[in-house]
DNA sequence: CGGACTATTGATTTGCGTCAAAGATTGTGG
DNA sequence: CCACAATCTTTGACGCAAATCAATAGTCCG
């Protein structure tokens, strides 16, 4: 087990601990998972829709997009996944049918086989619940994407995505800030349901209004409040259950 | 425990058994859940975004919509829920933050408290996994909604929703068919991100092209293939894992 | 240094929203 | 059982946000 793997598993565990209570035995069980490191070049697809797999992909570095496709081949990005997240934890219990995965930058993933995850969940109910809960966070994000796509204009949609990623990357929002978000304007368009050309125009407007700057993969803003207002963004859905004490344990392990 | 409750729990169990393997003990544990019957009039909201609840709603009859709201108060429907489904199973592990619920017709729900569901999942890992898997089906549907909203024109979007509901209502697709789908045109618009007025126009076009008829809450079509093509619909994501043998049991119950 | 993405800007078209008003249907109370 | 209100549907005229088409500049990489 390499250092990268240990580090990344720890990062994943930390994510879980934000929302769930796990005792030391459970924590070490997660850290002891067997992983297989795989590197993927930027722009590669590494999972296809309707293709069955036998492992989950824990992201060690880089940015990943989940996408669906229209009949004409054009893509709709349905989620971004960042380091420390499982890009397809859901596949542990539902091995097919939830879209493809694409590397937006050079990416390193750790493969963890479905069986070992399911065994862990079965042996330690608290882990099962934590993983289930983690999947539900992804679902909450997805629901917000539907709201974003269904009822807002282009500017609000783009600002909203920048807001989501700011919070998920855990960027300090107390003052001006800046972070990497390595996507092209075209890909941003695929995420928010706009053409690349129009994304470009709207990004200019956002710049002119001093709301956000997006320049070659770097997002920066001067004031979080201004950005959040422009994106009609309320981070509650991302932060919910941040106090894991609320999730009291219902049954002792075996 | 009334007959309606028994019948509905059985329906819910049947749904789970389509995708998961549960032994007899586990099955009866689910059927033995304590429920509280609640009736809701059409057009009532019965759960609000960011409001914590302590129970899940199993739908016994009627149609329910999950929705998010824009700042201006307009709604975006993110899911429809039909009898036999839990409208908010996710809330068992994540009690707040995934949108509101609205009755689209007169509805009867069975409340099942979160603690009893989580205890079941902890005591019977196979049930935990089955519930997790059920949530992931909802997530797969949601992902398809993102694709639908993000990249398709009005006609395709509407046809797609009719396709989804046809399959979920388990309507026979071998010939001409007809089923109840008690929503207004305005609500259809809230689901697919269009105004009611435009929905009306597009429904006319769909009628004129003999693809689907939607008249006052009743959907009918002559040929499934024609409808599915118009909606760019592939039911794989709804049917996936229909053979539960694939989900082999990994660990015996305690 | 050349080739391939990526970003930028302009001109034009179009799908859908908005506003408005008239029918149709359903529900309610007298 | 009728009358009237409320909701839902349908249609028309008009405007606008975003798509499309097209061409020029940057920028990155081998």
Please outline what is shown here:
2 copies of one chain form a homodimer. Chain A contains 9 helices and 10 strands. Chain A has helices at 3-19, 24-31, 114-123, 125-151, 154-168, 185-192, 196-208, 224-230, 236-239; strands spanning 36-40, 45-47, 55-61, 64-69, 75-81, 100-103, 107-113, 177-180, 213-215, 218-221.
Key terms:
DNA-binding; 254 residues; alpha+beta; 43% helix; three-stranded antiparallel β-sheet; homodimer; four-stranded antiparallel β-sheet
Task: Kindly describe this structure.
Two copies of one chain form a homodimer. By secondary structure, chain A is α+β, with helices and mostly antiparallel strands. Chain A is 43% helix and 20% strand. Chain A has nine helices and ten strands. A four-stranded antiparallel β-sheet of chain A has the order 2-6-4-5. In chain A, strands 1-7-3 form a three-stranded antiparallel β-sheet. In chain A, strands 8-10-9 form a three-stranded antiparallel β-sheet. Chain A is globular, with a radius of gyration of 19 Å. The two termini of chain A are 29 Å apart. The model of chain A has no long low-confidence stretch (mean pLDDT 92). Chains A and B meet through strand 4, strand 5, helix 3 and helix 4 of A and strand 4, strand 5, helix 3 and helix 4 of B. Chain A binds a DNA duplex (30 and 30 nucleotides) through helix 7.
């Amino acid at each position: 087990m390499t250092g990268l793997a240990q580090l990344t598993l720890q990062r994943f565990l930390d994510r879980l601990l934000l929302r769930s209570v796990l005792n030391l035995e459970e924590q070490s069980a997660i850290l002891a998972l067997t992983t297989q490191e795989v590197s993927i070049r930027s722009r590669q697809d590494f999972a296809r829709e309707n293709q069955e797999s036998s492992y989950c992909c824990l992201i060690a570095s880089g940015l990943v997009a989940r996408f669906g496709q229209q009949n004409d081949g054009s893509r709709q990005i349905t989620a971004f996944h960042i380091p420390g997240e499982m890009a397809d934890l859901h596949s542990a219990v539902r091995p097919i049918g939830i879209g493809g995965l694409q590397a937006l930058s050079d990416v390193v993933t750790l493969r963890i086989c479905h069986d070992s995850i399911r065994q862990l969940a079965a042996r330690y109910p608290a882990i099962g619940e934590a993983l289930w809960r983690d999947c539900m966070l992804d679902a909450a994000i997805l629901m917000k994407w539907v709201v974003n796509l269904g009822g807002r204009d282009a500017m609000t949609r783009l600002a909203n995505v920048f807001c989501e990623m700011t919070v998920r990357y855990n960027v300090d929002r107390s003052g001006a800030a800046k972070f990497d978000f390595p996507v092209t304007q075209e890909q941003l368009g695929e995420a928010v349901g706009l053409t690349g050309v129009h994304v470009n125009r709207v990004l200019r407007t956002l710049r002119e209004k001093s709301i956000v700057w997006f320049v070659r993969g770097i997002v920066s803003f001067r004031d979080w409040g201004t950005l959040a207002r422009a994106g009609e963004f309320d981070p509650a859905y991302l932060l919910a259950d941040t106090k894991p004490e609320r999730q009291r344990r219902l049954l002792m392990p075996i």
